[in-house]
Amino acid sequence: MTTDAKPIISLQNLNVWYGRFRALKEITLDIRQKAITAIIGPSGCGKSTLLRCLNRMNDLIPSTRMDGQVLFNGQPLYAPDVDPTEVRYRIGMVFQRPNPFPKSIYDNVAFGLRINGFRGNLDEVVERSLHRAALWDEVKDRLKQNALTLSGGQQQRLCIARALALDPEVILMDEPTAAIDPIGTLAIEDLLRELSQQYTIVIVTHNMQQAARVSDETIFLTVDTDRAGVLVEHGLTRQMFTNPKDERTEAYVTGRFG
Fold it and tell me: In Å, how far from its chain's centre is CA 63?
């Protein structure tokens, strides 16, 4: 990862409200291609709100409004002629709790392709996606079994495979290891490092050790006096964890507040 790499997503003076409450205030930053960017900060600072802005998931929440710009590959993500569903194919999302459908392992991976009218070789895409999610060897002999029979860590990797099947450019992850055990967590972290060779990954995490282990860059948000989320610092992870520019960053990553 090089710091002069072209940004795939740019935010310019982004503000987000839920009704009268301002959740994010004047956020400006770039997210680099084929790198892992961690979003950290205390509870209530708008980490998940920021993540959902990146693929228009906030459109689904009543009373949400925003101003400012979100650019994806240089194009306005919120332009009137942009289809939010198409955005979510190109910028996939994995949630905190594994959420496989009550269908077979195979049908979970194939689901998005089918509803999108995919006419290619489903078997090939399902196998490739499960390989990319480091799950194929564990499930190749039971693809017709219900996905809910998998362990929590396996279910989360299945959800990653389901996102990968649509061939996104960016994968958003909202605390993807919060609901799984330490062994599953390490498997997901190893997977993220592999996937970052091909995909841009943005991950929200409360775990400072995880952010330090897996990310190339880190975004630190906190709240201002109005309880709005504001950007404190954004930079290379190793720099932010060893020599942060802002004393608030140092206080947070060392556990003195938050």
Answer: 23
Length of the chain: 258
Torsional sign, CA 82, 84, 85, 89: positive
All domains of the chain, ordered by start, with CATH? Answer: 7-253 (3.40.50.300)
d(CA 171, CA 34): 10
pLDDT tens digits for range 198-257 = 999 999 999 999 999 999 999 999 999 889 999 999 999 999 999 999 999 999 998 876
Instruction: Return the bridge partners of 220, or none.
Output: 40, 233
171: Cβ contacts below 8 Å, ≥ 6 apart: 91, 92, 93, 94, 160, 163, 164, 195, 199, 200, 201, 202
Neighbouring C-alpha atoms within 13 Å toward the C-beta of 40: 31
Please, what sign has the CA dihedral across residues 105, 107, 111, 117? positive
Q: Is the confidence at residue 60, as pLDDT, over 60?
A: yes
